[in-house]
Amino acid sequence: MILTVLPVIPPDLRPLVPLDGGRFATSDLNDLYRRVINRNNRLKRLQELNAPEIIIRNEKRMLQEAVDVLFDNGRRGRAITGTNKRPLRSLSDMLKGKQGRFRQNLLGKRVDYSGRSVITVGPDLRLHQCGLPKKMGLELFKPFVYNRLLEKGYVTTVKSAKKMVERETAEVWDALDEVVREYPVMLNRAPTLHRLGMQAFEPVLIEGKAIRLHPLVCTAFNADFDGDQMAVHVPLSVEAQTECRVLMMSTNNILSPANGKPIIIPSQDIVLGIYYLTRAKNGVKGEGMIFADPGEVRCALDAGIIDLHARIKVRINSELKDTTVGRIVLSEIVPQEIDFDAINKLMNKKELANLIDHCYRLCGDKTTVLLADRLKDLGFKYATISGLSFAVGNMLIPENKKNIVLQAEKDVLKIQKQYMDGLITDGERYNKVIDIWAQSTEKIATEMVNGISTEEIAGADGKKRRVESFNPIYMMADSGARGSGQQLRQLAGMRGLMAKPSGEIIETPITANFREGLTVLQYFISTHGARKGLADTALKTANSGYLTRRLVDVAQDCIITERDCETVDGIYVSALMEGGEIIETAGERVLGRVTLQEIKDPFTNEIIVHANEVIDEALAEKIDRAGIEHINIRSVLSCRAKHGVCAMCYGRDLGHGHLVNIGEAVGIVAAQSIGEPGTQLTMRTFHIGGTAKFEEHSTLEARHDGIVKFVNLNAVRTRENDFVVMNRHGEVHVLDEQQRSRGKYTVPYGAHLKVEDDNKIKRGQLIAEWDPFSIPILAEVDGIIKFGDIIEGKTMQEQVDEVTGLSRKVIIEFKGGDLRPRVSIKDGKGKTAKIAGTNIAARYLLSIGINIVVSEGDEVR
Question: For 582, what's the count of Cα atoms within 13 Å in the CB-facing half-sphere?
Fold first, then answer.
């Protein structure tokens, strides 16, 4: 395989462009070809002159290098650079990477019948519509307009039609209107991270130059109106139009294909408006009135007899309900099939999402689309009426804040003193200081939320009562419209601890908040986090996009190929636990999957779900009620299909809520469902601005009422009458009356138990607490301390703290395998004591880094 002839690519692909001023800009390939030609000619001349062997060998090597560089610059040795220190683009560089021939020109092309523009909000659109600027529409649908003008006989030739369109006469706009009616167009926003980043709408022609987007599809596109742009594409063939209408129409994409929850849910202003509408207020006009039906309430409201927030009683479906006027207004737009109780509560973002989900399962997609649109109109209307705004006076700083900060400073001084006295190490001091500040920040945050969320009003009887407040900032956060507890805390509580870019926490917190303003030092500390957020966003988004690409590459041939592979294998699924807390119940995890065996109620033995049945919402609820922990389901991991996977092993198509169709590209959907939130998360880091989160648990609280049961737990009583855990992997279970386990809690070694075996406990009661920053070694018997193999300078070092000047015995790394540093407890006869009830000697081996706080000959209990 030796090349004797080099093919040269056509000149069009390596152009020479004349610049003004008589210079030329050339393609790098020309340079590379020129180098090969020069060296080849020189070699020919040297051979004709019979030059010495060494010169010819050198020239041959240089020719070889020139050819290598032409094919792949930088593969061998250093890359050859041009005049401006930039490596020259060789043939393989033209092909590879994002800017190469394949990805730039063959996979991604510029297409005709498309345009792009800035987007603005179109609050008056229906869900299946988008606003298209007239100018843009005319340009996109030009051939169709020509055709319509010819059909109607306004013109006789295409040329005259062209002239007419250029003049933009009235007939042209009429023709455009007819052409555009019910003709779907596709909108796309880059980056398209999942399939909902490209959806079809029916265009409505508008004045102006910006595309108008329906506010409810913003979540799917991840669009906002701060200057985002979107592209429009026109599907030409009948097949393409049908596909747009059936598969890509925004009204057919209500559920997210990643998790099956609705993605068309009200957000921001809409949520705020509906939250305001369904809030109750004490002591307003018309409170306590009783109405025969919702129609009467509407009349009374329009006549100004009752207030929007008044608590009233209304007869609904022959039942008298306690409700508010606003909730009756909301019930007017909700479909008949939905029970009034579903909306007879304070509607925040979560409740609205549940309402839409419930409506989709109950009434199907048409009704849901209508409901979503009506909610949008109602939300905008009442958000406007409410006139909620953001004022400095609404950020109430808790009166107690000063005292809490002072107390924390005192506690920190105490810890500092303990450190100076040598009672604790520097690491423990740091951890305890951080702990004190984290708890103080929490305390201030709690007080602030209590202060901002309630207000005192005088009732009709003149007594003062605390009621939920109408503080706009609190309402924005509480409704889920905008802002979080974390941000409220920084506005009116205290900013708290900040993290350095390396991730460690700076131990002086920012005690001020944004309402009071920061000092120069505080501002300087907080730049750390803010800057890290910006840098992370820029760097990690690329990594996340690359992950999506690799996932797609791996999973793209995973397609549903058959209905049932009839396998007998499956996997067991149980509830997701994190730190003893249930994040997702077993029922929620198997929702939409197919069972492998029938599921029976463990107490009544009745069959809840048959084998090979799809588990829907109702069945999942039954499973959770029966308290079933492990469920055997069909899984793609155990599917026996020859190619791809089968529908029964895959389960429900989350985007549409029914069993998946054959031919669905589930691999791509899976890759997008992992990649999309990944990219969102990296972009989100920069919004919080670097305040440190603190996740160190040092207590266990019961999450259920029940009876305590110790499982493989060994605890002893100390002199102070504390109950201390003396083994690892011990658990405390909480059982209900039927002896079913309601919760399991793993208790760490050295924890102080606050309950005893077979005690009854209430929800929220303390089970155990411990010091999260040090791992103790506790004496299990009484006796005298004896050291073994603890030799100063060899296995143990007396470390002197530079700050306090006190020394500690610390086990250090030692050479020689025969030394085992240990502490034994001797009884009165000088023998190693045995641990009570066992034959095990009270001897404790010490690992590297352990601090010894006893001395030889000390008496311990």
Answer: 17
Helix (H) or strand (E) holding 644, with range, is none
Same domain? 712 vs 759: yes
List of residues 6+ apart from 664 with CB closer than 8 A: 559, 560, 653
Q: What Cα–Cα distance (Å) separates residue 440 from each residue in 19, 402, 447, 517? A: 68, 11, 11, 19
C-alpha span between 35 and 63 (Å, rounded): 8
Quick: pLDDT tens for 839-850: 888 888 888 888
Mind listing the pLDDT tens digit for each residue in 83-105?
888 899 999 999 988 888 888 88
**φ and ψ of 512, to 5 deg:** -85, 170
Mean pLDDT of 644-651: 94
Judge whether 233 lies within some domain.
yes
Please tell me the distance from the alpha carbon of residue 584 to that of residue 607, in angstroms, as a whole number.
23
Which residues sit opposite 707 in a β-bridge? 735, 760
3-class DSSP state of 822: strand
Q: Which residues of 803-826 are buried (b: 16+ CB within 10 A; e: fewer)?
A: ebeeeebbbeebeeeeeebebbbb
Closest-CA residue to 566 (of 627, 648, 508, 676) = 648
Tokens for 368, please give them.
């849901």
- Is residue 593 scored above 90 in pLDDT? yes
User: CA–CA separation, 675 vs 174, rounded Å?
Assistant: 45
**Peptide linkage before 11 cis (omega within 30 of 0):** no
Q: Is 517 helix (H, G, I), strand (E, B) or coil?
A: coil
The distance of Cα 780 from the centroid of its chain, to the nearest Å, equals 47
Provide the 8-state DSSP code for 80.
Answer: P
**Contact call for residues 675 and 193 (beta carbons, < 8 A):** yes
Contact (CB, 8 A) for 821 and 788: yes
Check if the beta carbon of residue 302 is closer than 8 Å to that of residue 286: no
H/E segment holding residue 333: none
Question: What 3-state class would DSSP assign to 233?
Answer: strand
Closest CA to 747 of 705, 790, 712: 712
| Tokens coding 751 | 């924890």
Residues contacting residue 482 through CB under 8 Å, at least 6 positions apart: 268, 272, 476
- Domain containing residue 721: CATH number: 2.40.50.100
CA distance 332 to 335: 8
Residue 579 pLDDT class (50, 70, 90 cuts): low
Q: What is the pTM for the complete model shown?
A: 0.80
pLDDT tens profile 318-370: 899 999 999 999 999 999 999 999 999 999 999 999 999 999 999 999 999 99
Q: Which of 821, 819, 801 is nearest to 811 (CA)?
A: 821
Could you tell me if 134 and 56 lie in one domain? no
Show the domain range for 337: 269-386
467 and 530 fall within a common domain: no
